[in-house]
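Q: Two folds, back to back.
A: First:
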Amino acid sequence: MLFFLLVAFTFTVSCQEQTDNKNDKEPPVETPTPTNPPTDTDSIYPPVETEAPNANYKPAFEGQTRISGVKTKTPYEVTIIAQGLSKPWAVTSLPDGRLLITEKEGALRIATTAGGVGERITGFPEVDSRSQGGLLDVAPAPDFQTSRMLYFTLAEFSKNKSEGSLTAVGRGRLSTNESKIENFEIIFRAIPYYNNSMHFGSRLVFDNKGNLFVSTGERSDMKTRPGAQLLDNGYGKVVYITTEGKPVAGNPFINTANALPEIYSYGHRNAQGLDIHPSTGDLWLSEMGPRGGDEINLIKAGKNYGWPTIGYGIEYNGRKVGEGITQKEGMEQPVYYWDPVLSPSGMAFYNSDVIAEWKENLFIGGLSSKHIARIVIKDNKVVGEERLLENEKQRFRDIGMGTDGALYAVTDEGRLYRISKK
């Protein structure tokens, strides 16, 4: 039976301890001397990662991995405001401060910041909810207050399911009584369909022009993986589309023969984190690597981010990926990578003065790592990392910025968290 528990547990944090060592047998990693400290007020701590890496690759530049640790000084509260959600995948704020939450089997819920959770909102087509598929991300249109339009990503079956499924973008109107999505339609498909249930991505975010950035996965299989390097398909891409699903004028490959005109960047593996920096307007992305090699990337139009040609991870069987190289001319380096992995999913820039030291920091939900990573960025470089909520032992699927200056996170185990100033 589905249940919801309001304000189940609150605890106060003034400083998170970095002690979650998954393998005590591994030797500690030497602490580098930081050359670019996070801020004038942050204290510098050893890197939060103490386990041995899976691969023996060297970073391309100092600070690309295992950056110095930081610790939040502002006391804050962590509250489990609801439990019993069914496989939640995304959480984002409505203009009135309430929260939209998708459940991957094909429903939407609206929650209050106090933890009240509404009934299932339906109106979606059948989704491929096997494994990593389902109803995925959600974003209200910039004019939601008048249009009531919501945009979604989902794993869409082909007709008769014979060809499998793909990552699609859809939209529909939230009914006035908030009971259903009206006139749902698909506006973009990351073709072609493929019959597996892996690596759909995906996130979507509106820019200040009212257009949509959408991330897709390369569908995981060795057969589909090379498609991330090709421009004739939607695998392993960031696409840039209008609210009608059309390519944005000026897209980098709009005049390239045989290329999908919606493509903005390529060479991605499985990107489940996407957000726009609140000051610079730059697009940032987190993506899951193989065994080791999870990445944070700064996305630029027309750039190739390397997968599967270059990367810092290895196959799950321990073999090298492709030729086992980490750099190649014409391919972008990640701003940051993790080895061992974070398993990064949804992410959000903190865009509030409520906790001033978090302003413009990046918060990323970790799945297998079971914590939230706070990433301090300065001049487009990572200069500090902190682990939050690691004692909760939850798979953090998404994290969103609230209109109240709090962060809200959902977990695969069905919890909704509020992280707010004490």
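A: Second:
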Amino acid sequence: MAISRAKKTQKVQSLAKELETSTTAIIGTFAKLTVAQDFALRKAIRESGGKYRVVKNKLAPIAGKGSKVEDAFKGLKGVSSVAFTSGDPVALAKGFAKWVGENAEFQFKLGIVDGKLLSVEEVKALATMPGKEEIFAKLLFLINAPAQRLATVLNATGRDLAVVLGQGVEKEKFSAANGAATTVASSAAVPSEAPAAVPASEVPAPVAASEAPAPASEVPAPAEVSEAPAPASEV
């Protein structure tokens, strides 16, 4: 049934507003869908963070003009519908692809992510990639893993040392060492005998200054050696 021009304008404006902030769109087609299937599809898209609309091939390009998903609406033919989101494109592709896998009546046409057009195969491949939440979880695990391993090693070292010490005490393996330590501690505690005090009367008095030896300048020089005796006369 044909719709009025005012109704068309209203639909275009409504879709344009929804597509304004969208960065991902997946275009599909179908032969026929029951009311139950249509309800299940919309629910799957909504749970994936997106919205779902059945669009007119001539009106969709007008609504998408100026948006990041504009190129996905060019040259549409047949029955067309679009799932779009400004959030995680992988989450949308996963939710959409899961529903499509259970409903052969629906098929993908193409997709677009941040202005890059995707083929049907690329849309399916997008659905197999890890989502943002999964990537962030793995990244957080990699960041925290070294600290967690260090804490585990430190805790294990303390526990192991306590177990070894406990077993040693139970088996009295430290008795000899404790005895030696006690002996050393006892000998260290008893001070050695102090040397006997020398009476003050036996301490030699210091040499008086007047009796000090004369300086080297005042010591008399040794006598000069006399001349050697003349040699004996010849016999």
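Q: And?
A: The mean pLDDT is 75.
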